[in-house]
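Problem statement: downstream parser choked on a complex file, so we are re-checking the raw output for the zinc ion run. The parser issue turned out to be on our end (a line-ending mismatch), but while we're here, posting the original submission so the record is complete.
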Amino acid sequence: MIKSETKDLEKIYEKINSEENKMVEFLGEMIKIRALDPRSGGEGEYAKAKWLENELKKMGFKVEWYNCPDDRVPSKVRPSLVVREEGNDKSKTLWIVTHTDIVPEGDLKKWNTDPYKPFVKDGKIFGRGVEDNGQELVASLFALKSLKELGIKPKINVALAFVADEETGSEKGIKYLIEKKLFKKEDLIVVPDGGNSDGTLVEVAEKSIAWIKFTIEGKQSHASMPHLGKNAMRAGMRLGILIDEKLHEKFSKKNELFDPPVSTFEPTKKEANVPNINTIPGEDVFYFDCRVLPEYKLSDVMSTIEECVKKIEKEYDVKVRIEKMQFEDAAPTTPVDAPVVKLLIESVKKVYKNQPKPGGIGGGTCAAIFRRAGYNAVVWAKLDDTCHGPNEYAIIDNLIGDAKVYATMMS
Ligand SMILES: [Zn+2]
């Protein structure tokens, strides 16, 4: 690194340190405004977006509104806001995409404080939405604000997107922005909506997910007269074991990006059948949760399952119904040598002096929407993952540190 760059970084870090109180206050004010999806009984993100626009203007940003129509909310729109800063190289843009919507507070009795009144204690700020996704929204904003106020021009264009509707499918948020063609293939996209507590997980891949329900139909009878019935539970147990064995046998590849590095096939939920011990159940219902490495296709997993089902149907003279409760092939993986991955890892290392690594996770994130649309996106943040639960908190040191990471990426 050349000397002036090091000097700039030092100045930026100092500036961000000096903004700590303002950042905490900003985050606290922001979470007072609920931004809930109409399906969760909310009015959407409009009020929060209005507040945010006002704050952004005070900082000297020009604010772009992208209003996705939605008749279910009073404002009739689900707004996403974008602010930009031009870089020395204008050919591509570094995007940091955070969301303004939240999930409901859940059981209030489990909260120690009012979820919509920010509460600061022991270096943490508590409240609904402080970690998911307020921490990163504020971190990205104050990173850009610091550069702007110091008169440091970003290396490439920088854009911050504060999007709607992340918690319930992104249909009226990220997907809408992709439709509006805001992004270019060569852009660097960070979605800081997940991570781990030491900031070492740079998420570039995910497993496919299939939740499958099996209903075995036999014939109920008295337990002393099994020849008059067809025991659905015995067939169900056999089927469960057969599926378990066959799937593990056939889909056994390893991929060290993931923890665990294998596909997982777990029998999980079991529905109650008959209430008494002396009845042979005529119906048996159980479920599998499958998380499959992206090198496999879920349709191949299904074929194996169907073979098992046919075998059991024949052997036990029962009928088996298969229902897909959730069924989604993984999005393409972001290559570990993609510019956004390299830049992020370098920047995280510089700030936290840790060893961040690209990795995969077992469930879908909103980065998958970008990847499916052909953009390289990564998920990263340093957080304790308290989101969606009671007593959600953000660690103030993470707020400051992550702002430095984004500022490093920008400068
Ligand atoms: Zn989130």
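For whoever reads this later: The chain has two domains: 3-205+331-410, 208-328.
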